[in-house]
Amino acid sequence: MRILIVGAGAVGGYFGARLAAAGRDVTFLVRAGRAEQLRRTGLIVKSPQGDLSIQPKLLLAAEIVEPFDLIVLSTKAYSLDAAIQDFAPAVSPQTMILPLLNGMRHFDILVARFGESAVLGGSTRIVSDLSPEGHVLQFGPWHDMVFGERDKSVTPGIEALGATLQGCGFPTMLSPDILAALWMKWTMLSSLAGTTCLLRGTIGEIEAATGGVETVRAIIAESAAISAANGYPQKPDFLEQHTARMTEPGSALTASMFRDLQKGAPVEADHILGDFLARGRAHGVAAPLLEAAYVQLSIYSASLSQK
Ligand SMILES: NC(=O)C1=CN([C@@H]2O[C@H](COP(=O)(O)OP(=O)(O)OC[C@H]3O[C@@H](n4cnc5c(N)ncnc54)[C@H](OP(=O)(O)O)[C@@H]3O)[C@@H](O)[C@H]2O)C=CC1
Ligand SMILES: CC(C)(CO)C(=O)C(=O)O
């Protein structure tokens, strides 16, 4: 299976490097700046699951001459439209597109461009970042990937994908209901991103503050209500585990959106929180704390665009 990873950042760089190191046929679609950096340093991953250093196969958009079997999409949501223009020449009627972006709105955009059957569902739990030198830094135990056909069918393509991803040093799961898995991830992420961006701290810092735990619990309840109103009630054991993680004393856990905020970088607020809230509002669900997080992030994004 010829694999094109679109974006060699914190997520694409991590999984692409693991796949390449396990002998899979991986090429990264990159832009000029990242290409220059990767040619100079190689692709270096620092991870508690084992460090890696590979010489990645790189392509610029203008160099695409033939389609790939699998396209793994790992740009930020705000880069999606431009990325679609760039990788479109790599898509044939047989190509599978596996987006790993957080949120759900990208499915409408990808389906409108490439058709229902080309677009798989996919998601990852990982805490990773790029260092100033462009190394991928992965933290903590999470580095898993879940995927599936959005209509729950088990096609030869999805089975081939499962076989290709297996044995590459990270846990994978072919989900029987990928939309449910995506809603679970979105509920988890919206509450983590909403909490850390609104309260401006790590989970440990928030837990230690007076009223922190109560605020976390209220934000989780808002997120769960939005998911339930959209037909995806979250299981009590997931909510219990998630609440325990979100209130763990001393925890350094943050959302990638909070880390972007701290760096003064663009954030995926519209794609992740704005869309989540809109889907709650459509069902009459009030979520004042998540709304406050989103308003604050919108003001931040507007201030960035004026710079
Ligand atoms: N980081 C994390 O912990 C997690 C992130 N996610 C989600 O994964 C997605 C990706 O996030 P993340 O990896 O952190 O983001 P990064 O910013 O680290 O990586 C995105 C990469 O996409 C590249 N890119 C953008 N446009 C193009 C293009 N047209 N062609 C080629 N490359 C392009 C950027 O390259 P350039 O250098 O050229 O800008 C950048 O390296 C997001 O939706 C995020 O929410 C999900 C789980 C965890
Ligand atoms: C919730 C988490 C950490 C899990 O992957 C994530 O997706 C993010 O921070 O963007």
From TrEMBL:
Pathway: Cofactor biosynthesis; (R)-pantothenate biosynthesis; (R)-pantoate from 3-methyl-2-oxobutanoate: step 2/2. Keywords: NADP, Oxidoreductase, Pantothenate biosynthesis. GO terms for molecular function: 2-dehydropantoate 2-reductase activity. It is an enzyme of class 1 (oxidoreductase). The keyword Heme does not apply. Its EC number is 1.1.1.169. One of its GO terms (cellular component) is cytoplasm. Residues 177-297 form the Ketopantoate reductase C-terminal domain. Catalyzes the NADPH-dependent reduction of ketopantoate into pantoic acid. Belongs to the ketopantoate reductase family. This is 2-dehydropantoate 2-reductase. It comes from Granulicella mallensis (strain ATCC BAA-1857 / DSM 23137 / MP5ACTX8). The lineage of its organism: Bacteria, Pseudomonadati, Acidobacteriota, Terriglobia, Terriglobales.
